[in-house]
Write a structure and sequence with these properties.
By secondary structure, the protein is mainly α. It contains 6 helices and no strands. It has one domain: Four Helix Bundle (Hemerythrin (Met), subunit A) (Up-down Bundle), CATH 1.20.120.1630.
Length: 198
């Protein structure tokens, strides 16, 4: 299969996912009349997030502009694995729409909560407390599969690890906001994947 086919599909999936995220985040800021301060996560964490985020987002766009620039991290995946990445990417794109439409104006760019934050327990949040981290990391892994590129996939995994490190602080803020309601929610849901048998 021509490399351009995978580039076009990867571009459509990535740009659609970014557009969905951008739309819902801007809508939340506009409708709540509130922007969340990034200082809540601390200087060290925000520095790591900014640098990591820049590398994370630049790498797929570099591939889309010219795959030869990312040839140093090509893995030589068989074509069926790359098509699996396309399918996984489409699934993630649909998941991104589902989770953003479920959480609505309660989305926050930091571990902080909005003033009128509501606890969402529907959609994917019925089973998983932080589906955005799982789906977002899976999106970059799928992009790495489509692009046949270990670096892009690895950046997705490292970003997930970084978000997992930040998650306890986010959950502490949610417990502070919702108290026993959130503790009960924790007891019946998984942090990143659904709980088995629940």
């Amino acid at each position: 299969m021509n490399e351009n086919t995978f580039r076009i599909l990867a571009a459509v999936i990535l740009l659609s996912s970014v557009s969905i995220s951008f739309y819902f985040r801007r809508k939340a800021d506009r409708e709540t009349g509130e922007t969340i301060s990034r200082k809540i996560d601390g200087n060290w964490m925000m520095t790591v997030i900014k640098i990591g985020g820049l590398i994370l987002w630049l790498s797929p766009f570099v591939y889309l502009l010219n795959p030869a620039w990312m040839a140093w991290s090509k893995t030589g995946l068989p074509e069926p694995v790359r098509w699996l990445g396309v399918g996984m990417g489409i699934f993630c794109m649909l998941g991104i729409y589902w989770l953003f439409s479920s959480i609505g104006n309660n989305i926050s760019p930091t571990s902080g909560v909005r003033k009128k934050h509501e606890l969402i327990t529907s959609g994917p949040y019925r089973w998983v407390r932080h589906p955005l981290y799982t789906v977002g990391a899976s999106m970059f892994i799928s992009f790495g599969m489509m692009a046949d590129n270990w670096f892009i996939a690895t950046m997705g995994i490292l970003t997930f690890i970084l978000m997992a490190i930040r998650t306890p602080k986010e959950e502490a803020n949610l417990i502070n906001k919702f108290g026993d309601e959130y503790r009960e929610y924790i007891s019946r849901t998984g942090r990143f994947l659904p709980k088995i048998g629940k």
